[in-house]
Amino acid sequence: MKRFVAKGIAALLALAPVPATAGQGSAWDYTFTGIDGQEVPLRQFAGKVVLVVNTASQCGFTPQYEGLQALWQTYRDRGLVVIGVPSNDFGGQEPGSKEEIKTFCETTFHVDFPLMDKAVVSGGAAHPFYQWAASQVGAVGVPRWNFHKFLITPDGQIADWYSSLTKPQDPKVAAAIEALLPQVRR
């Protein structure tokens, strides 16, 4: 009987989410490299609502940049930060250099929200933030294509995630952001 219970506990532990790296188990434990080459520790956004989106310049969802910019303009003064993470993971749709990506985003969609350098967002080689996010939401919530979105609470936890099909202007995205904004520290 004891062996059966021990095997059951071991099986349950194997299914439990495990943070990808040591830390406090929040988004604030991770750092990206900005598109300008500077380190961008996510902890600088602690106390704010953050929408992290893996992006691509040659994708059918690329027009979502417009909606992301609109969210940023609407809510940034109230505590929302939109972060774009270019990735070439899906369909090779972000082949450009960081300079090309930045120029494309600024000139085509007038993006002025923070853009990161290109990163891997899926699989075993994913950026540590994306590994952590996968451990938090499970296989169903990981990016399967460009413009997957993670909504992060002011205390660094994942509030929700949205597939590529969910546009930034979707009312459920705005409602989730609105619900979190009262928690923003001023």
Write a structural description.
This protein is an alpha+beta fold and 186 residues long. It has one domain: Glutaredoxin. The protein is 31% helix and 16% strand. It contains five helices and six strands. The strands form two sheets. It has a four-stranded mixed sheet with strand order 4-3-5-6, with helices on both faces. Strand 1 and strand 2 form a beta hairpin. The longest helix is centred in the first third of the chain and has 14 residues. The protein starts with a helix and ends in a 6-residue tail after the last helix. The N terminus is likely disordered.
From the structure above, extract its key features.
186 residues, alpha+beta, two-stranded antiparallel sheet, peroxidase, signal, 4-stranded mixed sheet, globular
